[in-house]
Design brief:
Blueprint (H helix, E strand, L loop, with lengths): L4 E6 L2 E6 L3 H8 L7 H19 L13 H43 L1
Antiparallel strand pairs: 1-2
Helix pairs in contact: 2-3
Length: 112
């Protein structure tokens, strides 16, 4: 995993810092050389945490530990695509609201 160092201006001068994403944080926390570590880490990052975010809990009955690494990677990609779509949706919603406000303003100007 590669981490990018970014310069940041402070009162004490320019400092370099490394900003990491939430999955990168979990990767560092759960780092291990054990053979099953990657599958476990992917299961937590791709299944457990997204489920907790969506449902506020995780139900062990839906036992996904039997998923293969390619299946977990596919699930992670699906979760990432879902996050991108949610972000795009919010952006489009904001754009629509602004367009509606502008149309109302133009309509009111034409009536006045």
């Amino acid at each position: 995993m590669v981490f990018k160092t970014t310069p940041f201006k402070t009162k004490g001068g320019v400092q370099n810092f490394t900003m990491i994403s939430e999955p990168q944080l979990y990767f560092l926390i759960m780092r291990s050389d054990k053979p099953n570590a990657k599958a476990f880490r992917m299961w937590v990052n791709c299944e457990v945490l997204p489920t907790i975010r969506k449902q506020w809990h995780y139900n062990k009955i839906s036992n996904t530990r039997s998923l293969t690494i390619p299946q977990l990677e596919s699930k992670r990609e699906q979760n990432q695509k879902e996050q991108v779509l949610k972000s795009e949706n919010e952006s489009l919603k904001d754009e629509l609201i602004n367009t509606q406000k502008e149309l109302i303003r133009l309509y009111q100007m034409g009536r006045g």
